[in-house]
């Protein structure tokens, strides 16, 4: 497993990519409301990327057709934007996107409530998933193990009675969207690859209200919960420093 260590200059370039991703996600968040289709969000994000002069990271990646992944309700990840998918009051939509600037990638995801209200269990799901990401980030520092991150995420999720998706994990990132190492959202403290200063990773808990099982639909991309329960997804790109994590997509 070849772990790529980034120089401070490379991390600064990745911070620029990360900031662009954050700007696009904030822009899309402002458009999410009942009656909007996920293709509306896609078209707006693609136009915004064009205006900003940044290259979309997802479009064309392994044949993926869009600049966003939009996963609604029981869709876990990799939902393809569609004119047929209209958002309704109380839905949740996870929006995942990435860009490339000067050859360096940024990648982030957030889950957004559609409209003003959702069920208490769904609201709790979003809060717990976001908190699990925060705890995972807090476990990052040079000398820590990948298992420290996974355990931190898993403990928060399972203490709330939810489950962590196993099939999809976080990843290293740099001049490619997916680099080593894989970053699971479960694990045991002290186990696995040791983190080194200059590594850049994406931590991205995917959390289900019900059981952890997922299946991929016939489109070859969209992953849904096997039991039809709600799922949330939050992600940040972070650099490993001697003092802890530097969040590049903050």
Automatic annotation (TrEMBL):
A divalent metal cation 2 binds at residues 107, 171, 204, 235. Keywords: Aminopeptidase, Hydrolase, Metal-binding, Protease. InterPro entries: Creatinase/aminopeptidase-like, Pept_M24, Pept_M24_MAP, Pept_M24A_MAP1. A divalent metal cation 1 binds at residues 96, 107, 235. Its EC number is 3.4.11.18. Residues 12-242 form the Peptidase M24 domain. One of its GO terms (biological process) is proteolysis. Pfam families: Peptidase_M24. GO terms for molecular function: initiator methionyl aminopeptidase activity; metal ion binding; metalloaminopeptidase activity. Removes the N-terminal methionine from nascent proteins. The N-terminal methionine is often cleaved when the second residue in the primary sequence is small and uncharged (Met-Ala-, Cys, Gly, Pro, Ser, Thr, or Val). Requires deformylation of the N(alpha)-formylated initiator methionine before it can be hydrolyzed. Monomer. This is Methionine aminopeptidase. The gene is map.
């Amino acid at each position: 497993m070849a772990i790529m260590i980034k120089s401070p200059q490379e991390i600064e370039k990745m911070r620029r990519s990360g900031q662009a991703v954050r700007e696009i996600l904030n822009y899309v968040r402002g458009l999410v409301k009942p009656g909007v289709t996920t293709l509306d969000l896609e078209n707006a994000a693609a136009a915004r990327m064009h205006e900003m002069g940044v290259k979309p990271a997802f479009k064309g990646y392994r044949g993926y057709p869009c600049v966003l992944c939009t996963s609604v309700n029981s869709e876990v990840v990799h939902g393809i934007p569609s004119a047929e998918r209209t958002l309704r009051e109380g839905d949740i939509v996870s929006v995942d996107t990435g860009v490339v600037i000067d050859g360096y990638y940024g990648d982030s995801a957030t889950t957004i409530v559609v409209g003003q209200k959702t069920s208490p269990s769904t609201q709790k799901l979003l809060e717990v998933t976001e908190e699990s990401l925060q705890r995972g980030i807090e476990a990052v520092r040079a000398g820590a193990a990948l298992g420290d991150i996974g355990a931190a995420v898993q403990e928060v999720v399972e203490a709330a009675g939810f489950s962590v998706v196993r099939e999809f994990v976080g990843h290293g990132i740099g001049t490619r969207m997916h680099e080593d190492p894989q970053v699971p959202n479960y694990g045991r403290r002290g186990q696995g690859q040791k983190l080194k200063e200059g590594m850049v990773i994406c931590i991205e808990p995917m959390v289900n209200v019900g059981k952890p099982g997922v299946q991929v639909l016939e489109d070859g991309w969209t992953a849904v919960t096997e039991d039809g329960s709600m799922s949330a997804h939050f992600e940040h790109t972070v650099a490993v420093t001697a003092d802890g994590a530097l969040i590049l997509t903050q």
